[in-house]
Amino acid sequence: MKFFRLSFLSFLLTTPLIAKGPSLDELKVAFLYRISKFVQWDTSLENPNGPRLNFCFVNSKEFASMAEKTYRDQVKEIKVLQSPDEIRECHVTYLAPSPDFDISPYLEVSKQHPILTINDDSEFLSKGGILRFFLNEKKQIRFELNLDQARKVGLRFNAQFLRLTKIYGKK
Fold first, then answer.
1. Average pLDDT over residues 134-152
2. Strand partners, 156
């Protein structure tokens, strides 16, 4: 099963975005769930949500709606957050980038909890976020990981996933 997940993730990573395929946003939503399969939440930390994960969205009802259609039965809850304190209930949180919306209060709260925070902004990881989506020159989705921050909050990533990921701060 692990081989299949890694193979599927590798396929998605090497497939360029094409006009007739899924939209960029649909691919990101699919990746959110797939990536969570490669994350281990520190068992020494309290996990009131049990084995199924809560997926949360900040500043993006559209992503939450797509997630609801895509993996509703595989997760415990899909939620659109209204305030930073709500992020404590999440395992995976996508913070949609917007010049009009300040995500820093959400990041401040998330730094104290084992929450996989994800965004597209090039400055996201320097602000304490954990994973960033970006497009390479071939228009393929890639990941950049703030491994130090992930470890601080108790998240561990599968070695296979780490091989497919650019590590923030490493040259």
1. 94
2. 40
> CA gyration radius for the chain?
15
- Edge-to-edge strand list for the sheet holding 77-80: 77-80, 54-58, 92-95, 116-119, 131-135, 141-145, 166-167
H or E element at residue 32: helix 24-36
Q: pLDDT tens-digit profile of 91-119?
A: 999 998 888 889 999 999 999 999 999 99
Tell me if 131 sits within 8 A of 11, measured CB to CB.
no
Phi and psi torsions of 167, nearest 5°: -95, 125
CA distances (Å), 77 to each of 6, 19, 71, 148, in order? 25, 31, 10, 28
Per-residue pLDDT band for 37 (boundaries 50, 70, 90) equals confident
**29 and 60 in contact (C-beta within 8 Å)?**
no
d(CA 123, CA 125) in angstroms, rounded, equals: 6
β-strands 141-145, 131-135 pairing: antiparallel
CB 75 within 8 A of CB 29: no
Torsion of CA 38, 34, 151, 61, to 10 degrees: -160
